[in-house]
Amino acid sequence: MSEDGVGRAVVPIPALADPERLRSLAETRLGSAPDEAFDRFARLVGDLLDVPVALVSLVTADRQFFPGATGLPEPWAGRRETPLSHSFCQHVVDVEVPMVLPDARLYPRVRRNLAIEDLGVVAYAGMPLTDLDGRVLGSLCAIDSKPRAWTGEQLRTLADLAAACSSELRLRIAVEGAEQARRRAEEAHDRLAMLAGLSELLGGTLDMATAVDRLGQAMVPLLADWCLITLVDPAGRPRTVSGMHRDPALAADLDRFTGLLSTGLGPDSIIRSVLRTGRPVMRGTAALADVEQGTTRPELAPLADRLGFGSHLTVPITAAPDRVVGAVTLVNGPSRRAFDESDLRTALDIGHRAGQAVGNSRLYGEQRHVAEVLQHSMLPTLPVVPGVELAARYLPAADRVEVGGDWYDAFVQPDGELIAAIGDVAGHDIEAAATMGQLRNLVRGDAYGRDDRVDELMTHLDRAIQGLPVPTVASAVLARVRPAAPGLRLSWCNAGHPPPLLLPTEGPVQVLDGTRGPLLGLARPPRRTRRELTLAPGDTLLLHTDGLIERRDRPIDEGQAALVEQLADGVSLPLPVLCDRLVAAAHRREDDVALLALRAR
């Protein structure tokens, strides 16, 4: 029980809050704005019954509004609505039959209604306005400010007009229903299209963060106003929470929400329940209490309110065999329809498909870690050599397991000379890496302790590859570096590899083309040749693999020219900074990248 504006007890009418009635009322899409069709009904009532006030009154759970009205005094004429404290029509909804009052002041049911005092309602005749199922949405009413004996003819006329007015309401509801059906059909089509492409979308990457981002973009706004994606660690504990919102202006609030939620899930939270049991939870009508009872962070409830919290649905992300690896939470604001069984089925399908992607990403992550350890174990620690500064970098191909056939090496001979090498074995997998390891060891075993010229060392390497045999075709540059005061003397041999680049302290960058011999590993090893030059103090030599210059969308010569341009001021940079700049510029690499730089001191 509540009170009206002057402290009088008001008994609530249950019929006003009937969800089905309110749904029909909403489907008329009418409000307190004037509507010409219903204004016409009000004018007809006023003219035919000769009354000063006539209303098409529709009643919600807490107010009445007038899409059709004539004769209302101000301020009510401008507002076109009143609270229920000023409503006779609510009683028509309650009794579901016409209500005819010659003098309202004599009837206990309404004699204390504020419409008598504020609107001048004395005589009242109201006919029910109904939807197709007979639910009373309001009334078409005639009002006089003085007592009046309503005639049978007047009431028949009012009833006929109410029937016609009800037909107009039903038409509005039917049109809205047809529009809703069309929207639902389009939504179902879009959902099927989304589900059909979801596996491919998620399977297009093996990176977990990218997969989660794509999943959020696929679901919002098609399925929900915003979503949360929670992933668990191997022990089943919530590890990360990501989110997506249809309104970019709320991105900061969502980031704050997910950040707090990742560490603030309480033991009674719905997400923890779904992660623990693997059973979905749906709330067609949600309250902020769902957030408050599920978290240890008081800030989350007001954040959820700002983000929009009208209904929510949480389903498990399952990987075979029925292992829960996370949860998807869909949330709609109060202005969007509540989730239903169709949404639940769609969300469960998404959870299953997402589980496959998460499982693949985790397997990839494990393989990536193993490959990274393997690759780094094969890359040498650069030696410290008097008169020479060395720096090197290795990057795998983008979005691929960190292992491949590119390699570099540098080691010191017993006499103090430096051997430097770089090479590229065909392939981008563990087999290529294993072959690369064999080849690097062959280079070391072939060159260490020998003072042969580099072209002779390369010829020995050809024979070793054929004779052992090592099943590969590879490119390589092998260089010998000797002190030659005041600088270094360099000799090198190229077996089908991109040429070295010289960054002199004076003058432009030079591409040391020379003689680029055939690849290593050919059936009939060719005769190898060498070239020599002197590095003055400060000069830099750069050895690199083709991943640094090769792109699918341009010739390799253009890539070589772009690299030369990028190195224009490289001689002035510290060697590690120069290497970092080169690998940063190769962020869209389609091949592995290895580079080895040496500078004469």
From TrEMBL:
Sorted alphabetically, which Pfam families does this protein's record hold? Answer: GAF (PF01590), GAF_2 (PF13185), SpoIIE (PF07228)
GAF domain location is: 33-179, 203-368
Q: Name one GO molecular function term.
A: phosphatase activity
SUPFAM superfamilies reported in the protein's UniProt record: GAF domain-like (SSF55781), PP2C-like (SSF81606)
Q: What InterPro entries does the annotation carry?
A: Bact_Sigma-Reg (IPR052016), GAF (IPR003018), GAF-like_dom_sf (IPR029016), PPM-type-like_dom_sf (IPR036457), PPM-type_phosphatase-like_dom (IPR001932)
Q: What is this protein called?
A: GAF domain-containing protein
Task: Provide the PPM-type phosphatase domain boundaries.
Answer: 385-600
Q: Which UniProt keywords apply?
A: Hydrolase
Query: Which taxonomic lineage is given here?
Result: Bacteria, Bacillati, Actinomycetota, Actinomycetes, Micromonosporales
